[in-house]
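Thread amino acids onto this structure.
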């Protein structure tokens, strides 16, 4: 009787974002985390950092985050203590950078450059069971992963601000229609709301019979 070889389990991909109530990723003139991070949220971030995620990011996010991480490691004064610790710690985390413009080798430690199609590369990473994957910012990359149906979890932490005048980086522009099944929620420090969903990309309104 022939033996069968078990396939490696598929790696889960999570899109993980922080947003204002009106759907912006940042705001001009505001500090990181809109100045509203608290001890519960920061302790949760530290726990999440111990889960061995491989972070996926695009070229723009790589340039921004690597520069900030290196500045924080050098003792730059533009960050709070908590921001500096979080940024410095990213150097030790495995990262995959998708870009056709960057050239290797990348200077930020533990960063691998992929110059080919991001959807194809992430599909292969998931098939190979590469371990838990999570986006790091990278709004266009996150949008591409969602549109391709590759995202297993969609998680946002909503900060209680509306930045209609100063908001930058609108998150949901260009998204497909998506239904969301809530699988987790909690509140940090009495003001920040975590919402985690299983996303399903829709081909039309759910009442239209096409999904």
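Threaded sequence (211 positions):
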């Amino acid at each position: 009787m022939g033996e069968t070889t078990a396939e490696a389990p598929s790696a889960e991909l999570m899109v993980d974002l922080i947003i204002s109530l009106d759907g912006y990723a940042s705001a001009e003139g505001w500090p990181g985390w809109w100045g509203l991070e608290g001890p519960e949220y920061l302790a949760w971030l530290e726990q999440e950092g111990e889960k061995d995620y491989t972070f996926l990011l695009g070229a723009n996010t790589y340039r921004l985050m690597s520069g900030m991480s290196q500045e924080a490691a050098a003792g730059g004064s533009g960050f709070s203590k908590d921001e500096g610790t979080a940024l410095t710690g990213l150097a030790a985390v495995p990262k995959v950078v998708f870009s056709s413009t960057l050239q290797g080798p990348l200077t930020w430690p533990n960063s691998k450059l992929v110059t080919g199609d991001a959807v194809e590369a992430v599909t292969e990473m998931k098939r190979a069971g590469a371990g838990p994957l999570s986006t790091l910012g990278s709004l266009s990359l996150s949008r591409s992963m969602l549109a391709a149906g590759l995202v297993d979890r969609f998680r946002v932490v909503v900060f209680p601000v509306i930045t209609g005048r100063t908001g930058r980086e609108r998150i949901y522009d260009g998204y497909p229609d998506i239904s969301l099944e809530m699988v987790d929620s909690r509140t940090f420090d009495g003001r920040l709301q975590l919402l985690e969903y299983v996303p399903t990309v829709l081909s039309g309104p759910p009442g239209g019979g096409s999904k």
